[in-house]
Specification:
Blueprint: H1 6-14, H2 24-30, H3 38-50, H4 54-64, H5 70-80, H6 85-88, H7 117-129, E1 141-144, E2 148-151, E3 159-161, E4 165-170, E5 178-182, E6 186-190, E7 198-199, E8 209-214, E9 222-226, E10 237-242, E11 250-258, E12 262-267, E13 275-279, E14 282-286, E15 294-297, E16 301-306, E17 316-320, E18 323-327, E19 335-337, E20 348-353, E21 361-367, E22 370-377, E23 380-383, E24 400-403, E25 410-414, E26 418-424, E27 427-432, E28 447-453, E29 456-464, E30 467-471, E31 479-480, E32 490-495, E33 503-507, E34 511-515, E35 522-525, E36 532-534, E37 542-545, E38 551-554, E39 563-565, E40 582-584, E41 592-595, E42 598-602, E43 610-613, E44 620-627, E45 630-635, E46 640-644, E47 654-655, E48 665-670, E49 678-682, E50 690-693, E51 701-702, E52 712-717, E53 725-729, E54 733-736, E55 744-745, E56 754-761, E57 766-772, E58 776-780, E59 789-798, E60 803-812, E61 816-823, E62 833-841, E63 846-855, E64 861-871
Antiparallel strand pairs: 1-58, 2-3, 4-5, 5-6, 6-7, 8-9, 9-10, 10-11, 12-13, 13-14, 14-15, 16-17, 17-18, 18-19, 20-21, 21-22, 22-23, 24-25, 25-26, 26-27, 28-29, 29-30, 30-31, 32-33, 33-34, 34-35, 36-37, 37-38, 38-39, 40-41, 41-42, 42-43, 44-45, 45-46, 46-47, 48-49, 49-50, 50-51, 52-53, 53-54, ...
């Protein structure tokens, strides 16, 4: 969605004069200007490029952006994707912005329309190896969010949010039984109309879900098309099937869908062995219950509709990139449907047949800036009026159409907003369902899916980037269904090391969220949630970013509305990643850094910035600040640089040896206790992805052996043992105990989801993982404490009736401790000692215990000061 300071960010990136601070909201509301394809497209292209999936990126552009908008898109890509401006004209990653024409919308890599076949198989193999939790060793557990109150809408009201919902299905025989699919968060099941939820496919080969459908004859049979067509298509591994209504799932088939994303699945009402599938790779049909499939059209297909009665001769409509097609022989052959005024190719097209009157059907399309709505009645398709203000800017990503089950003159349309249209005679009345003023409920924008309660057309469900919402009166009022739907899509995490229960994380399209121990997280900031940071010495000072070079600072630990914008002065037109890296010093000091097409460093928490240019054109993709005087930066083309404070200034960047050329550095780690030990992590496939240097970057060794051949997104290292490290992959977390020589799966209990960031807490001894989109998880790396850890800290002697005080310092503030004083001299007959413990918070992360001991006897007494650690968490 359009964020609260998007106009400011866009102006900063392009060099235009930004609006005044007090005009930000008005500007954003009055004249939002999204890039072609929207910000979701920029995010997707960046992640595809960072993995080397450039042909996949080209296909996404072909499907998402109309030809006349390609030049504008190319300009925006130079600002935000994985290549700096100087690379754009050298055949670098932004070359996919070339105009390819309508024919480019067909698949060009393999039969999936997604990533190359060897990449598809790598994801399938890795996903298959990640299994349900075992009882051996430590196990991951969810931190939520179970819901996030105060979420952002375009209306005047706020709403609870969770994460992106891609598909919804309601049991045709039990209206309280609802299934929904999260984009990359798996299948979820509810038996109370969405009031509570349980995950059902956490340990399937993938958690990317594009379509779910019940068998209308036997609702205990449910089908799930994996790989989300809108975004996560390359994670598709085929179709899952449930025979118990969605409680448990198994793989029905993989071929031909590995690497494809699903948009829609349909089951014939009269013949439940007859299924149809709409995917990024085409339109497919099955006649044996989905075991085997035949490709019937080889172009991207988004939407399917079967006449309500079904049967061998039933009408089937399929909405594809080259138009609307009809079949009356079970999908064996298809004929083009002429839609008056239709473009030669669509950016998105949805179709719906009215259940109450199958002679009526609707087609809802987008091409470039133009939206189209057709209605068929009396055998003819005619153009209809459009919802006022409808935007096609993200039609490739959020779009649906559904005729009301009981009224052939009522249609629901989804785009960035959701609309209901009611036809009376030849006049349409349109209601914006998602964006209302003070007289109605609003819901989160970016609409992906709709479903109706079985037997009750008044009740509808809508799935958006913010989660799932239910209305009992056709969209007039809304109830969120996001309690227990743990599907937030986290990008990055930051922590307060002085607390075991404090995290800050950026989420896709739902802003920045804060965890303080409750499974319900606080909404800290609106907009797009990017990278975050916490000042280690003063954790009340925290940072977050939106997209682009847009850092903000809070001095109240991230309370909502406490943020101040602290952008560096950036030359006009200078770009960055969509989510540029941001980092705080890992130890002492107020040094922070922000990486774009130059490195920006501040020694006073962003109060003043120093710009340090790269020796040649480069784009920052990773940062590490091991101490307040050293900053390391990795680039999207594989290079690593360092700058070290000389006492008066930050000198020019020094190039370290490049671990891997022409590859994307996703993360860096520099040991603060030994600056010779460095790690560089890469997402680019087809080569090493984990490198280690023991001589400050002069030479590097590839430590990728034993890891799955997947992109590696992040690394963290055990503060107690420099040879113990964890890396986050596109699927799973992996651990080394020997400096990367060998790796083992460290995903016990972790859903089989994309892991974008990992963060080790040095005192609580837990590792946190940010997933997209299964929320945040943690694991005690050595297991939870099963018994107290006790010992003697000091000894002492007191003369008769004497009182003295001892202190012991540098105890982690996260630890729960008991102190006792035990006499070691024997004097039977009466108590000998009493003591009192006082605590001093000596720093942000450590405490000092002051222990006053009194001798209750007239004789000298010797004693031990003993501690007992009850918990480190």
């Amino acid at each position: 969605m359009r964020g609260p300071i998007d106009e400011m960010i866009d102006a900063r990136q392009t060099g235009a004069e930004p609006p005044a601070a007090d005009a930000r909201k008005a500007v954003a509301e009055a004249a939002p200007k999204k890039p072609p394809g929207g910000k979701a497209l920029l995010r997707l292209l960046q992640i595809l490029e960072s993995r080397g999936f450039e042909e996949s990126a080209a296909e996404v552009v072909d499907a998402a952006v109309h030809d006349e908008a390609r030049d504008e898109l190319r300009s925006r890509l130079k600002q935000f994707t994985a290549a700096p401006d100087a690379k754009a004209d050298e055949g670098g990653p932004t070359r996919h912005a070339r105009a390819r024409g309508a024919k480019g919308r067909t698949r060009t890599t393999d039969q999936s329309g997604g990533a190359p076949a060897e990449i598809d198989s790598a994801y399938l193999a890795a996903g298959t190896e990640l299994t349900p939790p075992t009882g051996t060793g430590p196990q991951w557990r969810s931190l939520g969010p179970t819901t996030i109150p105060n979420g952002q809408t375009y209306g005047t009201s706020r709403v609870n949010v969770s994460g992106r919902v891609s598909t919804i299905a309601v049991d045709p025989r039990n209206p309280a039984h609802v299934l929904c699919g999260a984009a990359n968060g798996g299948v979820w099941e509810s038996f109370d109309r969405g009031a509570s939820w349980g995950p059902r496919t956490d340990y399937a080969a993938t958690t990317a879900v594009g379509a779910i459908v019940f068998d209308p004859q036997n609702p205990s049979i449910v089908y799930c098309g994996t790989g989300e067509g809108n975004w996560w298509s390359w994670l598709g591994v085929g179709i899952l099937r449930s025979s118990d209504g969605g409680a448990s799932w198994s793989t029905l088939c993989t071929t031909p869908f590995v690497g494809q994303g699903f948009y829609d699945l349909a089951v014939d009402q009269a013949n439940n062995q007859h299924l149809l599938a709409a995917t990024t790779g085409g339109l497919y049909a099955s006649t044996n219950g989905g075991t085997a499939w035949t490709a019937r059209r080889n172009v991207r297909t988004w939407s399917l509709a079967i006449a309500p009665g079904g049967g061998a001769g039933a009408e089937i409509l399929g909405a594809s990139s080259d138009g609307l097609f009809v079949s009356t022989n079970g999908g064996a052959s298809w004929a083009h449907v002429v839609l008056t005024g239709a473009p030669p190719a669509f950016d998105r097209l949805a179709v719906s047949i009215a259940r109450s009157n199958p002679a009526v059907a609707y087609a809802w399309g987008a091409s470039g800036a133009n939206a189209f709505l057709w209605r068929r009645a009396g055998g003819a398709w005619t153009a209809q009026s459009l919802p006022p203000g409808v935007s096609t800017g993200q039609a490739w990503y959020d779009w649906y159409a559904a005729a009301s089950p009981d009224r052939d003159n009522q249609i629901y349309l989804g785009a960035i907003e959701s609309y209901r249209g009611d036809l009376s005679g030849s006049t349409w009345t349109w209601l914006n369902l998602s964006n209302k003023g003070s007289t109605g409920d609003s819901i989160h924008p970016d609409q992906h899916a709709i479903a109706f309660e079985s037997g009750n057309a008044n009740t509808i469900y809508i799935g958006s980037d913010g989660g799932l919402y239910r209305s009992a009166n056709r969209g007039v009022n809304w109830q969120h269904c996001n309690n227990g739907l743990v599907i937030s899509e986290f990008e990055y995490l930051a922590q307060n090391v002085g607390s075991s229960r404090w995290l800050l994380g950026g989420t896709q399209d739902n802003g920045t969220e804060r965890w303080t121990g409750s499974p319900v997280w606080d909404h800290a900031a609106d907009g797009d949630g990017g990278d975050c940071g916490v000042n280690r010495a003063n954790p009340m000072t925290v940072f977050h970013t939106y997209y682009g070079m847009s850092p903000e600072r809070s001095t109240s630990a991230g309370n909502f509305a406490s943020w101040t914008s602290i952008p560096p002065p950036i030359p006009a037109g200078e770009g960055s990643l969509f989510y540029p890296p941001y980092e705080c010093s890992a130890t002492a000091g107020d040094t922070v850094a922000l990486g774009g097409d130059a490195l920006y460093v501040s020694r006073n928490n962003g109060g003043a910035w120093t710009r340090i240019a790269f020796p040649s054109a480069a784009r920052s993709s990773a940062l590490k600040i091991p101490n307040g005087d050293s900053v390391y930066v990795g680039t999207s083309d594989g290079r690593v640089y360092r700058t070290t404070w000389n006492g008066a200034a930050w000198p020019a960047l020094t190039a370290l040896t490049t671990p891997r050329t022409s590859a994307y550095v996703s993360d860096l780690f520099v040991d603060p206790n030994n600056l010779n030990r460095l790690w560089a992590i890469y997402t680019s496939m087809g080569g090493g992805r984990v490198y280690r240097s023991d001589n400050a970057g002069v030479t590097w060794s590839d430590q990728s052996a034993g890891l799955p051949t997947l992109p590696i997104n992040a690394i963290d290292v055990d503060s107690r043992n420099p040879n113990r490290a964890w890396v986050a992959a596109d699927l799973g977390v992996y651990q080394t105990l020997d400096g990367g020589a060998t790796w083992s799966n460290f995903s016990n209990g972790l859903p089989n989801a994309y892991v974008g960031d990992v963060l080790f807490h040095p005192h609580a001894l837990v590792l946190r993982a940010a997933t997209r989109n299964r929320g945040v998880w943690e694991i005690p790396v050595d297991g939870w404490m099963t018994q107290p850890v006790c010992g003697t800290q000091f000894t002492g002697t007191l003369q008769g009736n004497q009182t003295r005080r001892w202190f012991t310092f540098n105890w982690p503030a996260t630890w729960h401790m008991i102190w006792t004083v035990m006499p070691t001299s024997i004097r039977p007959g009466s108590p000998q000692l009493t003591w009192k413990v006082q605590v001093e918070r000596a720093s942000a992360e450590f405490v000092t215990y002051w222990i006053s001991v009194q001798n209750l006897t007239p004789d000298p007494v010797t004693f031990e000061g003993r501690y007992c650690i009850l918990s480190r968490y």
